[in-house]
Design goal:
single chain
Amino acid sequence: MKKIIFLAASLFYSVMSFAQEIQAGEVPSIVLNTFKQKFLKAADVEWKLKNQLYNVEFEIGRVDHEAWISNNGSIVKHKQDIQTNELPGAVSESISRNYKGFRIDDAEKIEAGEKLLYKVELKTASKEEDVVFDHNGKLVESY
C-alpha cells in the first residue's frame, strides 16, 4: 500500500512540475503583449507555465495553435495544425518516396527560431510513425 501511495504522489508531483495551468492575469505583461501582437485573432486561449516558458494553446479560425514564449517576450516556438495540402511539395514528395503505404493522419508546421519544420503523423493499418522534415523534405527526426 505504501508503494501505491508513493507512486501516486510521485506521479502527481511530476505532472505538476511538468506543466502548471495559469490564468492570463498571472502571465507577465511583456509575454501577453507579444502574444496579442503576433496572434491578434486568437480565441480559446489557455496558458501554462512549463520549464520556465509560457506555453499558450489557442485557436485562430478553427486551426489549433501552440506557442512557447520566454519571460522576456520572445517567441521560442510556434506550432500550428495544417492541412496535408499545405505541406511543401518537397515534404510531400519525400513522404511518397520513403513511406509507401502510409497515409498522412495529421500535419503540423513548427517554427522554432530560424528553423521551419513539418511534423507529420503517418499511419498504416498496423503501424504509426511520427516524422519531422525540414522545408526541403529532408528527414530531421523519426519516432
